[in-house]
């Protein structure tokens, strides 16, 4: 829902005869999105940049769209698509639609409206990633945090380290269901992105005003890399087949440090954004003799990135040893890390698991596929508040992010079911929330758009019989148990006061 929307009398028309005047990059995208020729000319659809508006703000007055930048224009055009019937969102079919005459003024609440996609646990082909970007952009999200590596798979090429994709990108089988059931499918899985694949994803996202923030998790969650190069760890291992946290981490010797610098250099060469994700979460210290070597490692990597004009983006565990100056913290372990990070002067992206982890089960219905985590309903996600009320340094909260961990999502179809329509609720929460009941009424119309876009969303009525995964049992958690666990997990955080 825009900040302001007033319907006027009359109808307008978009069809094969409509001409357009506006910036080339927006016009080029809009031609494809609407399947209309949109020849250049005056007197039809007018797109213009108005510097008086905030960069991502826009206005619509009949067939004139103004944006504070080309990003604002893009969001105005996405709203135009939502003013059309769902058939306008299909890839083929009749064209030509009536448009209601309206006056709309709109701007986002937060500058970081992100979604993280884990392609390490289950590899997602390039075409599916591009589709994921399209759907996120349709909902006016502007950051794709791409989780490229983990214990279960390495998904990018690094010059001079070929075994990362020859060995680390593949595992002999995958766990099925929550880990305490110890079930495996006996089927090899893997894949990786060539450097040109990643450049394509970055360029495609940029055309839709989505910044891709890459993440290679280090020094933990590195078993796939150690499988490829045992000298980086403390012994030979295989790419992890089960979920959970591996104790096989980097040994932080000279060769493993050089390796990490080479990885970061590759990320800097491929991804033009300022932020480079180094993870930093869930790193056991057993193989280091119990010593906590991570703070110095994080500082070394931050220094290397700074020499390339980049900054660290890391999970909130990097706060525990003192996050390097200039770091951006992804606060995931409940609301407390957002408070701590901001009070310590760090910019922070709020993504607490209790309201932003879209792998968590959507209801108590036994038909939900592989129910894990606490219950996270559509209403829960809509109620997401990135900025804690008691925080004074509110300006340091860049915004919010929903996280899509894919241990239990082995296909784009499975991702669709877990992500939509909850990501619709999240998108409105970080753009500018209204009343949930009003959102739910509008969502009943919006799912028709999701149908037209081919999204396998979870029906508002609940799971269908074929959505269940009896072969992949889950592990539902209570909210109280998880809150207790989070208090223990964040006990090492500095006070931030």
Automatic annotation (TrEMBL):
SUPFAM superfamilies: (Trans)glycosidases, beta-N-acetylhexosaminidase-like domain
Signal peptide positions (record): none
Keywords of this entry: Glycosidase, Hydrolase
Catalytic activity: Hydrolysis of terminal non-reducing N-acetyl-D-hexosamine residues in N-acetyl-beta-D-hexosaminides
Domain Beta-hexosaminidase bacterial type N-terminal: 24-106
UniProt keyword 4Fe-4S, yes or no: no
Family: Belongs to the glycosyl hydrolase 20 family.
Protein name per Swiss-Prot or TrEMBL: beta-N-acetylhexosaminidase
Organism: Paractinoplanes bogorensis
């Amino acid at each position: 829902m825009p900040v302001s929307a007033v319907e006027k009398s009359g109808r307008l028309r978009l069809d094969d005869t409509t001409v357009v005047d506006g910036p080339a990059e927006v016009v080029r995208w809009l031609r494809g999105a609407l399947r209309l020729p949109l020849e250049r000319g005056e007197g039809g659809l007018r797109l213009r940049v108005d510097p008086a508006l905030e960069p991502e703000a826009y206005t619509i007055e009949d067939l004139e769209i103004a944006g504070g930048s080309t990003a604002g224009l893009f969001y105005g055009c996405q709203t135009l698509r939502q003013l059309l019937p769902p058939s306008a969102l299909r890839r083929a079919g009749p064209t030509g639609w009536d448009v209601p005459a309206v006056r709309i003024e709109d701007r986002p609440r937060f500058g970081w409206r992100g979604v993280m996609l884990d392609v390490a646990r289950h590899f997602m082909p390039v075409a599916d990633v591009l589709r994921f970007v399209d759907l996120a952009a349709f909902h006016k999200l502007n950051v794709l945090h791409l989780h490229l590596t983990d214990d279960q798979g390495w998904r990018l090429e690094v010059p001079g380290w070929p075994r990362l994709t020859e060995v680390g990108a593949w595992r002999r089988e995958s766990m099925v269901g929550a880990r305490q059931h110890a079930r495996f499918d006996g089927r090899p899985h893997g894949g990786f992105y060539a450097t040109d694949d990643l450049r394509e994803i970055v360029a495609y996202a940029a055309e839709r005003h989505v910044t891709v923030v890459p993440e290679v998790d280090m020094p933990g969650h590195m078993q796939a890399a150690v499988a490829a190069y045992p000298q980086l760890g403390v012994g030979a291992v295989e790419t992890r087949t089960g979920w959970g946290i591996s104790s096989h981490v980097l040994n932080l010797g000279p060769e493993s440090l050089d390796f990490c610098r080479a990885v970061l250099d590759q990320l800097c060469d491929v991804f033009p954004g300022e932020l480079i994700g180094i993870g930093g979460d869930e790193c056991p210290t057993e193989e280091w003799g119990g010593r906590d070597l991570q703070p110095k490692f994080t500082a070394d990597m931050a220094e290397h990135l700074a020499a390339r004009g980049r900054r660290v983006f890391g999970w909130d565990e990097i706060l525990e040893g003192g996050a390097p100056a200039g770091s951006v913290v992804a606060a995931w372990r409940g609301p407390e890390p957002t408070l701590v990070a901001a009070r310590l002067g760090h910019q922070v992206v709020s993504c607490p698991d209790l309201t932003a982890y879209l792998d968590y089960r959507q209801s108590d219905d036994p038909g939900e596929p592989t129910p894990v985590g606490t219950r996270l309903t559509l209403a829960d996600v809509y109620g997401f508040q990135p900025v804690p009320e008691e925080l004074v340094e509110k300006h340091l909260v860049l915004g919010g992010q929903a996280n899509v961990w894919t241990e239990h999502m082995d296909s784009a179809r499975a991702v669709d079911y877990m992500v939509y329509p909850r990501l619709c609720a999240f998108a409105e929460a970080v753009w500018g929330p209204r009343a949930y009941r009003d959102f739910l009424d509008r969502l009943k119309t919006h799912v028709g758009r999701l149908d037209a876009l081919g999204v396998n969303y979870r029906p508002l009525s609940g799971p269908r019989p074929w959505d269940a995964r009896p072969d992949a049992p889950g592990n539902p958690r209570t909210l109280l148990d998880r809150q207790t666990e989070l208090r223990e997990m964040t006990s090492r955080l500095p006070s931030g006061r």
